[in-house]
Amino acid sequence: MPLELETEILNLTTRHPFIIARGGQSDYRTLMVRIKDADGHEGWGEAAATRFYGETLETVQAAVAMYAPLLGDDPHQLEAIERRMELALRGNAAARAAISSALHDLVGKRLGVPVWRLWGLDAAAAPQSTFTIGIDTAEMIRKKVAEASGYPILKIKLGSDRDLELLRTIRDATDRELRVDANCGWTAAHTVKMLPVLEEFGVTVLEQPVMPHDLDGLAHVRRAARIPLIADESCVTSIDIARLAGRVDGINIKLAKCGSLREALRMIAIARSHGMMVMVGCMIESSLGITAAAQVTPLVDIVDLDGAALLRNDPFEGATITGGQLALPDAPGLGITRR
Amino acid sequence: MPLELETEILNLTTRHPFIIARGGQSDYRTLMVRIKDADGHEGWGEAAATRFYGETLETVQAAVAMYAPLLGDDPHQLEAIERRMELALRGNAAARAAISSALHDLVGKRLGVPVWRLWGLDAAAAPQSTFTIGIDTAEMIRKKVAEASGYPILKIKLGSDRDLELLRTIRDATDRELRVDANCGWTAAHTVKMLPVLEEFGVTVLEQPVMPHDLDGLAHVRRAARIPLIADESCVTSIDIARLAGRVDGINIKLAKCGSLREALRMIAIARSHGMMVMVGCMIESSLGITAAAQVTPLVDIVDLDGAALLRNDPFEGATITGGQLALPDAPGLGITRR
Questions:
Q1: What ipTM is given for this predicted complex?
Q2: Which of A62, A196, B166, B222 is the most exposed place for a label (fewest CB within 10 A)?
Q3: Which are the contacts of A58, defined by CB distance < 8 A and separation ≥ 6?
Q4: Topology of B118-338 in CATH?
Q5: Among A77, A121, A270, whose Cβ lies nearest the Cβ of B270?
């Protein structure tokens, strides 16, 4: 019997409007994918579409509908299913990632083991997660920092014309570790000017200051920087890593960019072969998508999986972040339950 | 209860003395590793030491003794165990590969699935395997080619002063597909001279003509070659791949070089990210080691896993090669039984 696929729209609302250098909002819709086998097992996944990577809820729905008949009857055929999907329709990484997550969830449930254990990983090796403070007014920044008191590491979104004010406000409000993500909002020259400022404010990591294709810009920034430089928008899939080697210190992997848990594992292997750091990030998504991404965290250095923590109405329970520490579920598959 | 490790020496004899550019012999001793868990499951692996990569049976025994206390009590902690072994004692890839194989066998048996299925692979995607004809007299070459009548693809070992004679003898004896492995026996200049000769004899793949560190030599050969050039001795682990990209068409992965099944999977991911071909090879080893390497073959292009087929006294049954076609066992773990 072929695997059956069903979808459901998840309406997610952030506690505060989530604003980055490219804009932002409070209401997000993601697509839940459910894949059922003949034995009554069911695997779940979530597609968090972002227009920056060419996807919307509607394109995800259309892509998932195209992929569904390609699943076959054996969820253990993970490699073959992913190849079939790529051959049928390229791109659409968030859609493919949702199916990849659902298949892994299903396989783990069928074998009775968590996905991280299926992969031979040690859940205790998962690093702390940062918590992101979006671009906002000084008053709201102070409120958000207070609300995030359980997170020892904060990540702030820069790249607007209020960077210095934001840095000052946040540093006045807390002495916690700060990491910066400029989401392509700066030029390389401006970034080099900002480096001493970031250093003065005790920033420990700088993520993607320049435009995705400005690899020379990244290299220029890295030569001047004393803190690790991480590529996010410049690093979508495996094939981007070799040309980033030597130009940045590490890469940020997201399922909605790379399209599958298997590709995430491949990217980690490739980055490590170049001696690069590895970060795992997320979109605004529920604990369903977060818990899928969390499965790879025992292999990485930096975790930024606060997508569900930013929500007011997370429909799922899965990986948790307590005092900043990410904890993976022990239950089979992804280990997710519906609230 | 900690995992228990036992070893046993396997005395293997090839049907014919197996001679390559660096010499050869008929008698081989490998080390079998058995790892037992508290539930009575047992995983098996084999270390095929080669002096070229710095190992002998005795160094493998010493290394395995050093690694045994690091196994801990949970065989599913594959990543952590491999990291502990690497931190304790670097090198010794064949020794580590035997432990990696035994742990994967054990994990697969505990979960009741073949290792290839644990990895989401399709056993039916395994390519045909070549069969290797070592350096020998014209009469023996003809005898070996006749004996290997079940193999549609032959690999011949060149790199001696009798290359032309060997090519002529073998081509006179058969019109089957021929691949050539010179095992570092040529210079780049000599290889370029040999290319039209290889072409004339219908050779389809050329493996490692020049010395391991002669990467410029490989690039020089590749520019002149119309058949794929595969790096073997030049490609030991992950970190060798990026600098081979653009200089060769593909890499040959062997467990006895790379040290673990996990590293083999990582190497495949890295090679693919560079658009490179992937080959899986072996040493002279029993069906135990061959079947471990065979688990990754659904992901590769070229298979040269004839190590056990060359033996007179293979103690195990596992992966089979029938009419050249590699077939992976369906039984849990590596799926190996003792004859």
A1: 0.86
A2: A196
A3: none
A4: TIM Barrel (3.20.20)
A5: A270
